[in-house]
Amino acid sequence: MVMMSRLAACYVVNNTGGTAWSSSWKKTTVPRPPPPPARLVAFRRRMATNMVTTTAAGATCSGRESTTMTAAETAEVLRSLDGWAESNLLPLLKPVDESWQPHDLLPDSASPGFRDAVDELRARAREIPDDYYVCLVGNMVTEEALPTYHAALNSFVGYDCPSRADAWARWSRGWTAEENRHGDLLNRYLYLCGRVDVRRVEQTIHHLIGSGMRLAAAKCPYRGFIYTAFQERATAISHSNTARRAGALGDACLARICGAIAGDEKRHEAAYTRVVAELFARAPDAAVRALEYMMRERILMPAYYMFDGRDPDLFRHYAAVAQRLGVYTTADYADLVRFFVDRWGVADLGPGLTAEGRRAQDYVCRLPERVSKMENAQRQRRGPQEPCRVPFSWVFGRQVELQL
Ligand SMILES: [Fe+2]
Ligand SMILES: [Fe+2]
Predict the structure, then answer these.
(1) Rounded to an integer, what distance in angstroms lies between the CA atom of residue 150 and that of residue 172?
(2) Considering the entire predicted model, what is its pTM?
(3) Is 25 a catalytic residue?
């Protein structure tokens, strides 16, 4: 604690340059920092234009809806589901003793055969192309921003104290603990494989956690759980595809690594999908309006604000590589929408809906077809395109083919 205080006192820097206070509390002069490079300015501008307005204090749902859900109503929704979550949600967490750990899937550093095992891992890695590593790094960076997701989840499950023992608090902690292994595993693999610029990748993680994420859910559990259900399914698809691709490239160990993560994501998807199904069963009007809201707001990937200090369009370029390799595509997004509309039985919601609820139902039920049509129209408009090449700092600035 003492060390922390001292360090903090030494590290106070006035952002505008000019004066600062050192730990001895003497006024000192520090040079004005140089202006940020153009790429950083471009990145910050892109972030600013995509930010959503946060809600007013006390209100947890906002936007185009005429009604808002207050913090008390949010708490009530979750309280009413606590018993349900205990018996339907918590069993989807795996006990620690039955869970894989990153150590199980990587060379054992305490074993005498460690160096040989690492050499074998690196020999296999040499056969894998850079575009695959761009996808894997993007997946890893996404996983490593877990502090942001933990904070977001807690903002809508209302978990604010580590001693809380209700089902939502236990779920939040258990889910985070399971997710924590994903970034650890990929990070250690990528460190060992020798194919990526680890420092650049680490800077990207640093930037991403510092930038946060755009989550239109705004503390509303209906919207928040819809978002997480979409995200878990999207990440399950992405990790499954990197697993499949690693297998096709002849690296069964890497396939196992990505497959283990994909298995967790499927289980998490099942959990959040169940929660939303239950919300649809108990409060169909609020649920369908929340789904409409999230669909209109777009489900933006949580790593949208990734930045490596160089490329202000890093996320777009990474997504374009994933699209070209088939790791995660726009067609997958259309499938997600179709899957959840079916799974939550949106078309079959009964006559209990309000006029606004019926409008939302209509919009959501037509959406999968509209997304597919838009995607086809976009493809036809673009016509056959020559792939272009973009340098990625993650692979030491080498050019990687992508389709914008
Ligand atoms: Fe994950
Ligand atoms: Fe997950």
Answers:
(1) 7
(2) 0.84
(3) no
Q: For this structure, is 103 an active site residue?
A: no
239 labelled catalytic = no
Task: Give the Å distance between the CA of 235 and the centre of ligand 1.
Answer: 7
Q: How far, in Å, is the centroid of ligand 2 from the Cα of 314?
A: 23
143 has catalytic annotation: yes
Q: How far is the CA of 370 from the centre of ligand 2 (A)?
A: 28
**Are the CB atoms for 195 and 125 separated by under 8 Å?**
yes
Q: Which ligand is nearest to the CA of 269?
A: 2
Q: Which ranges of 35-145 would DSSP assign to H, the alpha helix? A: 38-50, 71-80, 82-88, 114-125, 130-144
Whether 205 and 144 have beta carbons less than 8 Å apart is answered as yes
Tens digits of residue pLDDT in 82-128: 899 999 999 999 999 999 999 999 999 999 999 999 999 999 999 99
- Where in the sequence of the chain do the CATH 1.10.620.20 domains occur? 37-402
Coil vs helix vs strand at 354: coil
The whole-angstrom separation of Cα 233 and Cα 343 is: 13
Strand partners, 392: 398
Pairing of strands 388-392, 27-30: unpaired
Ligand nearest to the CA of 265: 2
**Whole-angstrom distance, CA of residue 290 vs CA of residue 62:** 10
DSSP code, position 328: S
Give the C-alpha distances (Å, rounded to integers) separating 274 from 84, 173, 183, 226. 10, 18, 25, 10
Q: Helix, strand, or coil here: 390?
A: strand
Cα–Cα distance for residue pair 190/174, rounded to 1 Å: 25
Centre of ligand 2 to C-alpha 174, Å, is: 11
pLDDT digits (tens, 9 = 90+) for 253-296: 999 999 999 999 999 999 999 999 999 999 999 999 999 999 99
Cβ atoms 401, 131 nearer than 8 A: yes
- Alpha carbon distance 148, 368 (integer Å): 29
Of 207, 182, 126, residue with least CA distance to 395: 126
CATH 3.30.230.10 fits 37-402, yes or no: no
